[in-house]
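Human:
If only I could read backbone structure tokens as easily as an amino acid sequence. I am handing you a single protein, as its sequence and its fold in token form. I hope you can help me see how the letters and the tokens relate. Thank you; the sequence and its tokens follow:
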Amino acid sequence: MSEWSYYDKRDVVDNAKTAAKGVTDTQREIKSLRDEVKALRDEQRELLRVNRQLLEAFNRMARDVERMREEMYPNDNAPKRGLKRPAAMKVVKKN
């Protein structure tokens, strides 16, 4: 078995320190990515909550419109649902 020189031992120690620093950097990066994922999940949760609120408000407005429509036209003579295109905007087919 050969004897290790001082410089061989120094290289081994330096390589070990470099590897340890790389591991520490990687762990720090992993923690940073986990924090970012957590923040994105929180943001997604908030967006879903707001989306749900908007949908509830829209449905509430639709029910109110339907109720007002029934009050305005009690005898089932209501105009068709949806937006009507004004006569000036109707497409006229030419022969």
